[in-house]
Amino acid sequence: MSILSIVLQVILGIGFIMFGYQKFTSEAMKQGFEYFGYSDGFRLFTGFFEIASAIVILVGIWVTSLATVGGAMIVVTMIGAIMTHVKMKDPFKNMMMPILLLVLGAVVTALNWSALF
Questions:
Q1: What DSSP character marks residue 90?
Q2: Would you say 108 and 12 are in contact if contact means Cβ atoms under 8 Å apart?
Q3: Do 46 and 23 contact (CB within 8 A), yes or no?
Q4: Which residue from 52, 102, 105, 110 lies 20 to 30 Å from 18 (Cα-Cα)?
């Protein structure tokens, strides 16, 4: 495992714990999901999935194959976020954070891919 992977895993892990937690506590997140046409149940599922992604990618520091799984979970989540922004015809600047997080998740996945085999 590379130092780059560990640094990205820590950044993504901390970030996704915060992002997931906000799905449960932030009024702005509730309003955002309503704006996108999503239910409260989907908002809560997204929060759980983001926190699970964070835990998996952080445990992946010690269990390398989980780094690959956690990175892939983040990639899938960010594809969903980007597709939502596209569906809503949001400006490109609103997609920059999900795109960046997708790239970082993909880098972690790629760096640790060989641990799956």
A1: -
A2: yes
A3: yes
A4: 110
Looking at residue 26, the DSSP 8-state letter turns out to be -
Cβ distance 43 to 29 under 8 Å?
Answer: yes
> What does DSSP assign to residue 47?
H
Whole-model pTM?
Answer: 0.92
Tokens of 83: 């597709």
* Gap between the Cα atoms of 1 and 67, Å rounded: 10
* Residues 58, 67: Cα–Cα separation, whole Å: 7
Strand, helix or coil at 64? helix
What is the rounded distance in angstroms from the CA atom of residue 51 to the CA atom of residue 65?
18
Q: Could you give the 3-state DSSP secondary structure of residue 3?
A: helix
> What sign does the CA torsion over 72, 78, 60, 112 have?
positive
Q: Which of 6, 15, 4 is nearest to 64 (CA)?
A: 6
